[in-house]
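thought: fold this chain, then report.
action: predict
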Amino acid sequence: MEKLNVGVVGAGIGKSHIEAMKNLPAQFDVRVVCDLDKARAQSAADEFQIARIATDINELYRDDELDVLDICTPSFLHYQQTLDALAANKHVILEKPIAGSLKQADELIAAERASSKRVMPIFQYRFGRGLQKLKFLREQNIAGRAYLATSETSWRRRPAYYAVPWRGKWQTELGGALVTLAIHAQDAVQFILGEAKTIAAHTATLVNPIETEDSAAISIQMQDGSLVSFSVTTGSSVEISRQRFCFEHLVAESNLLPYTFTDDEWTFHGDTPEIDAQISETLAQFPSLPQSREGQFYRFACALQDNTELPVTLAQARSSLEWLTAIYFSAQTKTFVDLPIRNDHPMYQGWQPK
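observation:
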């Protein structure tokens, strides 16, 4: 396999991306780390033994040796930087959220389609082995009909977190806990159960004096008729993430680790001893691949080499933004919101207050 030459833009969460790629040396070569803060770029380069740094993303656009730009910048920059990277003939790995509206998401999809390159949004929680095992059981027809899922994101964010100038503001973070934190849990639910049909939501700012929401309680009816209860807060003194899926033939429960809840160990409880035996036999055949970020990046490199579908697509990330749009509209109007959301919807061009 020919290595992909990568430029990582943003030395905050970008360091986690670099670490994952360094663990996949047959597939990735991180050539440069770029950050507006030269000292932060140099620190990351020193830590991971990267020879080159930059402070201007335009330098990376012009670099013909780079195959991929990994965009790990503040939320409000993602949309334009992705357009510019595609125009510069680069593949893109893109942190969440991909954009600040469904309109922008549709424009990114059109730009990717018009280019010869591909864009992979980051949803690394999909690739935890626990969640992947549940997906595998569903694909093998072990789980049966979905009944109810509960998802809890109970994290802690103190004032120091929001001292970073772009956080907690509608125009730069593009939303609150739903957009930059619990979006992973939302995608995990969607990965297992598919599309939503109707959403009703309450949001509030209770924990910190910020513009955006930091708490939410959401009720969802899925297209398959199953129900989802989804809660989020940044005010939990004990941080946990928890997901529990009730199906016709089994219950699946995540671990409680806040930032790796989709990884092993998950528990699967069959409705009968016979189903427990089926679960054990099926999971014995589970194909164990790298997980989390490494798992997503591994699958990305394979997809580019084999010209197959990316492990996460812009269309899938757009669907996540559709949920967010419905949540914000429901919370604002105190109504149930039906999906899909069309381009004549009041929040198609953005859910941020004008």
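thought: worth noting. The mean pLDDT is 97.
final: tokens above.
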